[in-house]
Amino acid sequence: DHYLQKRIGIIALSMKSPASLSYSMFSWQKSGLLDHVGERIAMFSEPMASELALADFFKFKVYQPKMFKDARRSAPNRFTIGSAFYHAMTIATSDFLIFL
Predict the structure, then answer these.
(1) What is the pLDDT of residues 53-64, one digit of tens each?
(2) Using an 8 Å Cβ cutoff, are 100 and 11 in contact?
(3) Per-residue pLDDT tens for 30-48?
(4) Closest Cα partner for 44 from 28, 21, 24?
(5) CA angle 9-12-13, nearest 5°?
(6) I need a surface site. Which of 71, 75, 87, 98 has the fewest CB within 10 A?
(7) Is the pTM of this model over 0.85?
């Protein structure tokens, strides 16, 4: 199990949807999914304080478009979906990734 934890990462995408994010993260915790991943990445567009707090609570490392000079944006701090996926893949160190 420890071996798998080093190989599997989870990437959460969110934009101004703290209720949905909260439900999802608590569900992932309750189901045991978070116990089986070694890397937790949150790709947030225009994050709200409550989304940042959730990411911190569940130990996700947060990334925003403004952190990448070459990120394609649909607004100053809003990823396009393709850009979010691309940058998540460049950041992740896990062998296998789950995008949620």
Answers:
(1) 999 999 999 999
(2) yes
(3) 999 999 899 999 999 999 9
(4) 21
(5) 145
(6) 75
(7) yes
